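Appendix B, Record 12. Input sequence as logged:
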Amino acid sequence: MDKGLKLPIIKPENNGQADKIQPPLSALQTTLESMQRRYANRNPKSLAFYNETLKHMPGANTRTVLHALPFPLTISHGQSTTLFSVDGHSYIDFLSEYSAGIYGHSNATIKAAIVKALDGGWNFGGKNQYEGELAKILVERFGNGMDMIRFCNSGTEANLMAIGAAIGFTGKQKILAFIGGYHGGPLSFPEASPKYSMNAKYDFILAPYNDIKATKAILSGLPPDSLAAILVEGMQGAGGSIPGQLDFLHYLRMAATDYEALFILDEVMTSRLAYRGLQSTLGISPDITTLGKWIGGGMGIGAFGGRREIMEMFDPRNGKLTHSGTFNNNVVTMAAGIAGCKIMDEDTVEKLNALGERLRNFIDTSIEKLLGAAATPKMYTTGLGSLFNITFAGPEKDVLHAVFYHYLLEHGIYIATRGFITMNIEHTEEHVETFGKVIEGFLAEYRDALV
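Logged structural output:
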């Protein structure tokens, strides 16, 4: 190098590589790195499965939410409410397939129903003996404006079909949805703009959830006769298990009527919070209700149902709207759904949600007891019944989430990386007590980071 050559001093603010310059790790980040090393050492077979799958699948993944750092566990099998990894470890399952696994992993009644259905063959390409029975069960259960129902393969499809029905019924185009709402992969609104490249290209308008004043202003600014539907969750799931305020949801029901739009209540997840769905607790009658998750007995399913005059648009005898799907009425799902819905009777639903409330109340009490000195604790819960979230706040909230996730795994408990917890009917008081003790241990060990 020429000794006379002077290299420029590149300051971080004008250095294109500045974002790669990492500040020193905090104590919490150092803890997380140590936990992730222990995790990798404990789970070599999961790592091997991950690396092999990377060759054929981007991120070794076909469902984004299942990714975890440094790599996800590979599950070998489940029994009752326990998951087993390929590495030989067992975990109490407090995720329950993001609420779809409400029956646990080995319900004998559902298994028998599936085996019986399979004994008669599958993939008929025709009407079968199960679909009408499941439809009758669901219509009689949810009632409340659900005169008729149709099946599809996921909650996502159910919401897409509900939107299409609203546009077809009203002849209008705009759909009011809410920031933080999630109605399926192509109907996701984590931010104020609906212009996410993976979203379905409907004419969405977004309003803040639980904000009547802002929603009124947005609706009043719309062109006349342009609103086809209001699409909302009674409790935002992916948005953090945020319950809708009663006055807000009743306002939306009224606004839909006033604007001659349809009120679509997404109960894909929340329909398990009461025997007749969260709508029965809220005292709201939707024009269309969407369902999914648990109603298929653990198999893939979606459903949308509503007022007769809306649903009859799908009657092939009049041909106004079409609705296709090779597996909409597959015998495995239909048979499992019948069995599952019978299992989830009023008593079972009530007990499940009461158990979830007890666990969440215990966690809240533990947080208050151990972190009560903090003006704003960095750990809190949100949710209803058997569905809730443990959430962290503050500048290191993402690190806290990751530390919490790994802490639970080290103590034999499996939840979502984002802190989402869903109960299943195999959970007992003993499971709740075990989880509670682990929570107390976490709070004691990480108290300084949480206040």
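The two ends are 54 Å apart (CA to CA).
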